[in-house]
C-alpha cells in the first residue's frame, strides 16, 4: 500500500486520503474521542462527581448505562470526563516534549561536534533511568497532581523524541539540497528552517503518535498509584484503581475505564503505525 | 478494612505500626469499674458462639491474617498482626474477658493497698516453653525491660507510672506506682505479655518467642506462614483445644474470602466491607463482630494553621458533613456513626453529640460568615490512598462541603509521607484514626492533651489538660466518667477533631469453628477456639 501511494506530490494534495486505512481509522477514533472530551459537559448524563448513596455499586441500567461506582457516581459520566483528563495530560505531555525535542534534536543533528555533545549527553543520562522511576521521582519532589504527571511524562519522552529528531536531521543535513542551500550562502537558520526541519519532521511525528498511546498507559499507571490525577477528578487510571477493590461485586466499575484505555491506546497505535508506513523513507524511494 | 490498597499494605497490618509513632497506646479503667459495666460481644450466628455443638480437643486451625508480623517480641512488635500471633504464645497477668471485665491469668488475685500499690498473687503451675518455671522474677524482668530505653518499646508510656516492681515471693509481686493511675490494670491486660529473661537473652526474641501461653512457637517461614503447636504444660486446665495453629498472610481481601470458600483455611480476619451483607449471612460461614472493639476514624484539623485556627470554621465543617451518608457510602453501612472516641458498646460511652441534628447547612454557612469567609474558602485535605474508607470519606466530605461554599482539594500521599506530615502538622485537614482505645485516657492524653505524642491537631487547652490528668489519676469509674463527659463537651465545642465513623472489626470462619470472639484488645483468644467436630 505504501509503495503505491507514496509520492510527495500526492501526499501534499490529499494528505488524509493518502494515509493507510489503519491511520485513518486511528485518526477518526481520536477525533471522536477529542470531541467527546471537549463536549464532556454536554454529553455526560450526570455530574461525574455527584455522590448518590442510593446507587452505591449500582448495576448498569437505562439511566446509568455503565452502572455506578463505590460512591454511587455514574460510571459513564466519569468515563467521559476521564477521557478529558487523560487526553489533556497526554496531548499536553507529548506536545511539550515534542516542542522541546524538535530544536534540540535538530541542532544536535545539524551541527554535530560539541553542540551535539552538549545537547545529547544530558539527554542520554535521562534515557538511562527507567521511565516510571523517573516519573515517580519527579512526583516525589514536586508533589502529586495532573500537571506534574504531564510534566513527568514529557520528561520521559523528551530524550526519546530528541534522539529521533537528531538522527533524522543528521541524515537530512548530509543530503544534496542542504548543501545546495549552504552553497547559495544561506544562513544556518534559513537552511534549518527551509530544508532540514520540514524534511526531518516525519519520524518525530510518528514517534510522538506512538508514544502518545503509551502516555495514556503511564498516566493511568501514575493515577492508579495515587501519584497522578487526584480524586475526586475522574481519570482512567484512578477509576481502574477504585474498581479493583470491588471487581467481584461490581465489575462494571473496572471494565469500562479499562476498555476506554484500550480504545485510546489502540487509536494512537493505529495512527502511529499508519504514519510510520506512510512516511517511511523506504516507501518514498520507489 | 476492606483493604486492598494499591501500593501499600492493608490497613490493619498498619494499625500497630501506628503504635510506634505513639498512635497506639491504650489505657483503661479500674478493675471494679470494668467488672461493673460490661458490654457483651455480639454474634450474628448461633454457631459462632457456644450454643452449637460442644468444642472438641484437637485439630489444626488454618488462619488467614491481613499481613505478616514485623516481630514476635511483644515489647517491640508494632503491627496488629504481630499481636494476633504472639497473643497465643504469651500470657499476661490479667486479661480482658469477652464481657469487658478483667479476668485472672498468670495472676490469681490482685489487690490494692492504696491507689499507688498493687499486689498480685501468681499461679504456681506455669512454665515457659523453654522449660523455665514462671515466677515473680519474670514479672519484674518483663516490666523493667519494657521501661528500659534500650528496648525502645512503644508501650513504655503505658507503664511510665511504675516506680518499682517488688518480688515478694516466687508467687507474689507488688507494683509500686509513682502516682495513682486509673488505667493501670487495663494497661496490664492490654499489653503486658510476660517474658523470660533467659529466653530473651539466649535467642533473638523477635524470631524466637518464648512465653507461658497456650501455644509454643514452631517456625516462621518468612512470607509464607507461622506455625504454633499446643503447649502441653499450659497452666489453665482444659486449654487449649487445638493441636496446632497455622497462620498465613493473605494481604488481598479477596484472597482470604476465596481461600475460606475453597476450604483452604478455617478462619479469616477482616471481611471486605462491600461483601459484608452477603458473607455475614452465608450459611457456609460463621461471622463474628463486636460493638466494643474497633477503630474510631475522625477528621483532624490543624488548629495552628489558617483557616482552621478559627473555631467557627471547624464547627462549620462539623455542621456541614453528613456522617450517616459517609457510613452508608464509604463503609457500606457497616460499623457505627462516629460520636466519641469509643463505640456505643463501651461502658465509657455517654452518647452526647452536639452535632447530632446535622447536617445543618444554614448554620454552617453562618459560622463561615462569622469567621470571615462569607464567600466560602478553599481547603486542602491530606489523603491516605492506602486506606480506601478514609480516602472515600475525604471524597464524600469534599462533595458535602461544596454545598456550603468550601472547595476541598484532595492530595493523596503515601502512608509514610502522611505520617510524617500529619505528625509534624504540615497539613490543613486530614482523616486519621486511633486504635485500641479501651479507656478514654488513651485517646485524650495522647491525641488531645497539649504536647500529646500524636496531638497532630496541635490543640491546646489548659483546662482540658487539667481534666485529663485528673481523670487519669482517679480510680473511681463514676468520677472518671463524669470527667470525660466534661472533657468531651469542651473538645466537641472547640472541635479540633470530628468523629466521623467507628469501624467495628469482624472475623469470618468455617461453621465448625467455635469460640472465636472479637475482643477489645483486638487479640484472638486462641486458647478458647476449637472445632466442633
UniProtKB/TrEMBL annotation, chain A:
PANTHER family: OLIGOPEPTIDE TRANSPORT SYSTEM PERMEASE PROTEIN APPC, PEPTIDE ABC TRANSPORTER PERMEASE PROTEIN. It comes from Streptosporangium subroseum. It is a multi-pass membrane protein. The chain crosses the membrane at residues 82-111, 123-141, 204-229, 249-271. This is Peptide/nickel transport system permease protein. It is found in: Cell membrane. GO terms for biological process: transmembrane transport. Residues 83-272 form the ABC transmembrane type-1 domain. Belongs to the binding-protein-dependent transport system permease family. Its main location: membrane. GO terms for cellular component: plasma membrane. InterPro entries: BP-dependent_transpt_permease (IPR050366), MetI-like (IPR000515), MetI-like_sf (IPR035906), OppC_N (IPR025966). Keywords: Cell membrane, Membrane, Transmembrane, Transmembrane helix, Transport.
Automatic annotation (TrEMBL), chain B:
PROSITE patterns: TAT (PS51318). Residues 1-36 form the signal peptide. Keywords: Signal. SUPFAM superfamilies: Periplasmic binding protein-like II (SSF53850). One of its GO terms (cellular component) is periplasmic space. Pfam families: SBP_bac_5. Residues 102-452 form the Solute-binding protein family domain. Gene3D superfamilies: Dipeptide-binding Protein, Domain 1 (3.90.76.10), Dipeptide-binding Protein, Domain 3 (3.10.105.10), Periplasmic binding protein-like II (3.40.190.10). One of its GO terms (molecular function) is peptide transmembrane transporter activity. One of its GO terms (biological process) is peptide transport. PANTHER family: D,D-DIPEPTIDE-BINDING PERIPLASMIC PROTEIN DDPA-RELATED (PTHR30290:SF38), PERIPLASMIC BINDING COMPONENT OF ABC TRANSPORTER (PTHR30290). This is Peptide/nickel transport system substrate-binding protein. It comes from Streptosporangium subroseum.
